[in-house]
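Researcher: Can you fold this with flavin-adenine dinucleotide in place?
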Amino acid sequence: MTSRRVVVVGAGIVGAAVAARLAEAGLRVTLLDQDEPGRATSRWSFAWVNSNDKAPQPYHDLNHAGMRAWAELAPDLDGAAWYRPSGHVELATAGTGELEARVSRLTEWGYPARLVSPAEAAELEPALRLPAPAAAFFPDEGYLLTEPLIARLVARAESHGAQVLTGEPARVTSIDTSGDAPPQVRTVAGAVLEADEVICCAGRWTPSLAAVPLIPWQSSGSTAPGLVVRVGPVAPPGPVRLLHTPDLAVRPHPGGLLHLEAEDAAAAVDLHTPEPELRRWAAELLRRARRTVRGLDDARVVAHQVCVRPLPPDGQSIVGRLPGAPGIYVAVTHSGVTLAAHLSRLIAADLTTGTPPAALSPYTPARFTPTPLDPGRLDPGRLDPGRLDPGRLDPGPRRPSARPGAAPRAP
Ligand SMILES: Cc1cc2nc3c(=O)[nH]c(=O)nc-3n(C[C@H](O)[C@H](O)[C@H](O)COP(=O)(O)OP(=O)(O)OC[C@H]3O[C@@H](n4cnc5c(N)ncnc54)[C@H](O)[C@@H]3O)c2cc1C
């Protein structure tokens, strides 16, 4: 049993999972969040657990391992409250070539995926009303209910001795290192916490605390924000599976609601979009949902929210020790809902054995370390999202689509 002190900054799905694993491993954990746990990006996520369209193959494998990690954790963490291995039905209403090619690639990679006839698609999801010339089924995919899940992860951390501090006084203003001295975490309330390791899991706010680049998310036209719409009530029998059509992504949500997203809506909004424009998109997504599934005759828009993806510039996770900053470790990623259980396991192995697992080596923060030849790489202001390949930036929601209005795929 070790008594190393670890401060985890951020109690979204990533920080909560990391805190739970490290506390279970016997480390002395303090978990800090400037808000209540799980109220930032993780709360509004589509929360699709998948490796449906992730590349290259090592990143696909990482996400596939992420899916298995939740399945393994669920029986031991009250999974009935948050784990929804619903399966995923995808309809191709126009060209089917891309779907066929993807299913074929995934099958070669050992990922459960198969093309299904329109009749079988209707059997798999009786609430579907949209006819489709082609469809596919991904039986091992599903979604998570992040709020009850994060509550359980934080409770698990506490049950293993973690101290959890939340709200404005727990807002971290800096993480400092100096020579070989242990890192220090400073809060807005003036506290200084000394630790052997600080794990920065601050989601989209990470660059304000640790020198890693994310796609800038506050500017007009940023590709990081997306639009989430929740509608209801859904009259039974509403959909029970996670669904994609080319212009809509749908999953059930607690309280008799559906959670909706669409790629064209995500591309059209940012943190500056006027409210009437957001309401117009929300109404449009409800219209598409009514066309797609049964049960929405009396439904209205219950909530709409612009929420922000933490987006590393190459679309893949940033996990590991920060070069030149002893004791500071970063874990920030898109697809964090899919990845958190597995990444937290890898991070715990790294910290308890002192050897980074090979699975983490492609994701080290050092890949963004500025070199004398490329001194600007760490300056997020110099990352121009418009000049990045959207497919690489975010293999899911921003993947170029066959036609306008394609749904967010594989976030
Ligand atoms: C629209 C949308 C759809 C998505 N769909 C999917 C999907 O289908 N599947 C999937 O796997 N992923 C999806 N994602 C991505 C996924 O939601 C994120 O990768 C994940 O939620 C990130 O979790 P996190 O814990 O890193 O960040 P967050 O949930 O944002 O948590 C970070 C926490 O850090 C705290 N914090 C920040 N700064 C400080 C500070 N200075 N001091 C103290 N605390 C601080 C915040 O309060 C917050 O609680 C989606 C994201 C969006 C926006």
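Model: Folded with flavin-adenine dinucleotide in place. Residues 275-292 form the longest helix (18 residues).
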